[in-house]
Design brief:
Layout: E1 42-43, H1 44-50, H2 56-64, E2 68-70, E3 73-75, E4 81-82, E5 89-91, E6 94-96, E7 104-109, E8 138-140, E9 148-154, H3 157-164, E10 172-179, H4 184-192, E11 194-196, E12 199-201, E13 205-212, E14 215-222, H5 229-236, E15 241-249, E16 252-253, E17 262-264, H6 267-277
Parallel strand pairs: 9-15
Antiparallel strand pairs: 1-4, 2-3, 2-5, 5-6, 7-9, 7-17, 8-9, 10-15, 11-12, 13-14, 15-16
Helix pairs in contact: 1-2
Length: 279
């Protein structure tokens, strides 16, 4: 069985670049904006408090201590007004999401679920996993229907576009159960690069995790996302995939999240994602 526990290096992808955010029937929100009107300029301490940094008094103390930056400039005086929809705010150097109404979710997509928010054929979709969320969410990248594991949902159009763009080379990690016994020579061949019908693929990482009866559990780390690239890579070296799970996207790990379950990203996870794609 493929599991997702234990430490994992930062990783890569299965099928999730261009145009990965939505299917044709999913309208695109304005870049960087959630549903609803912009909130307009507000006092910085109010914006920080609304983002969960503490009471306004605590946030005033953070500002007074010089621990807050807005658009790259350290703020030490009270009363500054910022637009939470556009301001880049950091506390102790960590990017904070301050725009109201923003949602950032990690989902463990089960096998058979389509990476879309709707499906004309009536198949189960990601929307069926977040029926309790009133926001209009869309997915960051894709996983094949028969691939399981981590996928992100958000209503932050700007961050999602950046995370999905090939130029940022967001690493993703996969755990694959393959047929046969993977030896050292095969591992070296994979790491040296394998020629596929649409060009070479050179993984960022590859290792044998466990050996089973007639099967091997391997971890693959990639920074690109071509159609079914993990499956095609492993089949090319003689080890067809029996089961495939994505366990990490950049700083976000699947961990012990059960299949079909959803959780909010932590502030540290979100800050690391922002840092990975900030120009």
């Amino acid at each position: 069985m493929v599991t997702s526990g234990g430490p994992e290096p930062a990783g890569t992808a299965e099928s999730d670049h261009s145009p990965p955010l939505r299917t044709a029937d999913e309208p695109r929100p304005p870049d960087g904006a959630p549903d609803g009107p912009p909130s307009g300029p507000q006092r910085l301490q109010k914006v920080l408090a609304a983002a969960g940094l503490g009471s306004r008094r605590v946030c005033e103390e953070l500002i007074g201590a010089g621990r807050v930056e807005v658009d790259g400039v350290r703020v030490e005086e009270q009363g500054m007004r910022v637009d939470p929809d556009t301001a880049v705010v950091r506390v102790d150097g960590q990017r904070i999401s301050v725009a109201p109404g923003r949602i950032y979710l990690a989902v463990n997509k089960p096998r058979g679920v389509v990476s879309a928010m709707s499906d004309p054929h009536g198949r189960r979709t990601l929307a069926d996993l977040v029926t309790d969320r009133p926001e209009r969410l869309f997915h960051v990248g894709r996983l094949d229907a028969d691939t399981e594991g981590l996928i992100l949902l958000t209503n932050d159009g700007d961050l999602a576009q950046r995370l999905s763009h090939p130029s940022y080379e967001m690493r993703k990690t996969y755990l694959a159960e393959v047929e046969g016994s993977v030896g050292k020579s095969t591992a070296r061949r994979v790491l040296d690069g394998v020629e596929l019908d649409d060009g070479p693929v050179v993984p960022d990482g590859f290792r044998v995790v466990d050996r089973l009866s007639g099967r091997t559990l391997v971890e693959v780390v990639l920074h690109e996302g071509r159609n079914r690239i993990v499956r095609r890579l492993l089949a090319e070296v003689g080890h067809p995939v029996r089961r495939l799970v994505r366990t990490r996207i950049g700083s976000v790990a699947l961990g012990e999240l059960p299949p079909g379950a959803v959780r909010d990203l932590s502030r540290a996870e979100l800050a690391a994602l922002y840092d990975a794609v900030d120009p």
